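note to self: dont lose this again. the chain is below, predicted strucutre after it. 157 aa total, dont forget to put it in the shared folder this time
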Amino acid sequence: MAEPLTIQHRRRLTRINLQGNDAGLKRFRDALLLKDFIVTHEQADRLELRRRAYLSQDDWPMRISIRRDGRQFEIDCYLFIPWGWIAIFTFLMFMILPFAGVPNATLAFGLAMVMAALAIYQRRFDCRPDARYWQQRSRRRWGETLERLARDAFLRP
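---
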């Protein structure tokens, strides 16, 4: 017998594969809407949602994409840093830091460039339960939350 729900963490995204029906999809969609997600694209076989960042709560922007093929559902989830943030951050470091009177401005500038390069390289983050380093708590929390929501929506009678 096939596993009812499989979760794969692929470094930049988490993929949940499961079988379900229209009622389960509706329950999952409604549960995500209650978690402050916004529907960005909806078709019969595809649904995309996003959630804005709540940085004061250590919560990062998130995207979820749901693809359907008959009874089989594939849910991709990832946290990310939008390109707009990276561009603004880099612009501010180039234009403001040298004139702001910050002591050791070259060190701060170098650290800012390293952070920008890291953000550009790691644009998406999966939701693995053993997440470490950057976005650690929110990645773990969202991994647990999405697994629970998927189980409750699709696997309950």
